[in-house]
Specification:
The chain is mainly alpha-helical. The protein has a domain of 56 residues. Helices cover 66% and strands 0% of the residues. The protein is elongated and about 75 Å long. The two termini are 42 Å apart. The relative contact order is 0.09.
Length: 106
Amino acid sequence: MKKFLVICLTACSLFLVNLNQPSAEETKAKPESVQFTDAQKTEIAKIQKQILADKKKLIEKYVEFGALSKEEADKMLSHFEKHYKMMEEHNFQIPPHRPHTRHMHE
């Protein structure tokens, strides 16, 4: 009987301690968008252009080594260029992260 009473009191105390914890939704901090200055935008644009050029070099090497076909490479390069244009249109703000809720395994 004493064991049962101790177990019940322990379970109740653990339950009460967890009531004070904020939920996961409350702890999520919503990222605020930062307004970049023109100098910051040009610096980020320069880095993004360098990344795009490096990606193009890498894809060209894959085509040269036969790991990708020319059509696949063109498709990838057009995707990279669209992404750069999208980033440019949105003033190089980082896109928000979307959680992977649709990928639930059953």
